[in-house]
Design goal:
The chain is α/β, with parallel strands linked by helices. The protein folds into 2 domains: 2-46, no CATH class; 51-350, Aldolase class I (TIM Barrel, Alpha-Beta Barrel). It has 8 helices and 22 strands. The strands form 6 sheets. The chain has a 9-stranded mixed beta sheet with strand order 16-15-14-13-12-11-9-8-22. Helix 2 packs across helix 3 and helix 7 (227-241) crosses helix 8. 49% of the residues are buried.
């Protein structure tokens, strides 16, 4: 266990966690909503420091990130717990875990960085469950990785207060933020959280940090896929974040406590993509479906095909050094190198020793 930051004592003997908008007030021995931050010995501790539910080398496109080191491998890992309660969680066996013994892999930050270097990874992803709740561990890993020239990526729902966000995202090179929907009622009913803190974080990331940001919205039939909501979401992205921020629409598959919903039809994610593009979002992608057109990166100026993908594999490359279009020399927003990686669709489980 490790003592955490972002908490303060209360007059009644409890302590308050200041990490996320829940502001859990805990008596001695109690755990927060996330289940991994606990009041022990008149301090807040992280109970999952150095413990993981597993490590795997993935393509960076799987996070999904389409404008950050395309084609390269990324070492992915998570711990347990979450500070949201999404009834449709796709990783519920990890994020809803209440048994710490399932965290079989013990790994120091230096051990994680060494494993990333050994497997040729250009970056490490804090993912599978919410990385904000294990931020002390993630930040130590990020520091160890940075010493070896390896970058850090947060795959997050973005439910965090702005003061700790400045610390956490100040050490992240990229983030994919899961914008669950664009309505407060959806957040309240299906996540147990609120929309506004996520929107505030997104504006902060775009305007106040150097962290590269992409967004993902999982489209659930009949809940967050109406034309009206998609119009509002995409207009907000353009107006408040900028037209160059990539937006991913992913198809829902029945999971956790939302088994009664049908999978999202291909036509729905394609419709969402059309709406977002019509509203000025320059880079819109579709995920969890077979949709070749929805995986291509186009030049926002001349329409040339800059990056083509088959699954998670980069199959075509139209960028020159500096990430500029070979046809019209317009820069494409993102973090690109002269050539893409060649990792492809492979998934490689990795054991990381302590």
């Amino acid at each position: 266990m490790m003592e955490t930051g972002f908490w303060h004592p209360l007059d009644n003997g409890r302590i308050q966690c200041d990490l996320c908008p829940r502001h859990c007030q805990l008596a001695e021995g109690q755990r927060g909503f996330c289940f991994v931050r606990a009041h022990e010995g008149n301090r807040m501790v992280l109970t999952t420091y150095g413990r993981s539910s597993g490590f795997c080398v993935d393509p960076v496109e799987k996070k999904p990130l389409h404008h950050f080191l395309p084609g390269t491998p990324i070492l992915s890992f998570g711990t347990a717990g979450c500070n949201l309660a999404c009834t449709f969680c796709q990783n519920w066996d990890i994020s809803k875990a209440r048994e710490m013994d399932r965290l079989a892999d013990h790994a120091t930050p230096e051990g994680v960085a060494a494993a990333a270097a050994r497997t040729g990874c250009r970056s490490v992803a804090y993912t599978y469950n919410e990385p904000i709740i294990f931020m002390e561990y993630a930040l130590d890993v990020a520091q160890a990785c940075r010493a070896q020239g390896i970058q850090s990526v947060a795959v997050t729902a973005g439910y965090i207060n702005l003061e700790p966000a400045a610390v956490f995202f100040g050490q992240m090179d990229a983030a994919n933020v899961d914008l669950k929907a664009f309505s407060e009622s959806f957040y309240h009913r299906f996540t147990g959280g609120h929309l506004q803190p996520v929107l505030e974080l997104l504006e902060y990331l775009k305007k106040e940090t150097n962290c590269w940001v992409e967004l993902t919205t999982l489209l659930i039939p009949g809940e967050n896929d109406s034309d009206q909501e998609l119009e509002a979401l995409s207009r907000w992205v353009v107006e408040r974040l900028g037209p160059e921020v990539p937006l991913h629409f992913s198809a829902f598959h029945p999971a956790w406590k939302m088994q009664e919903k049908p999978p999202t039809p291909l036509a729905t994610v394609q419709r969402a993509r059309r709406i977002a593009r019509a509203n000025g979002v320059q880079h819109v992608y579709t995920g969890n479906v077979v949709d070749p057109e929805g995986s291509v990166t186009y030049c926002q100026h001349c329409g040339a095909r800059l990056i083509e993908r088959v699954g998670y594999t980069v199959s075509g490359w139209g960028l020159d050094e500096g990430g500029v279009c070979r046809v019209c020399r317009t820069p494409c927003a993102g973090r690109f190198e002269a050539k893409p990686g060649v990792w492809g669709n492979r998934r490689l489980p990795v054991r990381v020793g302590a």
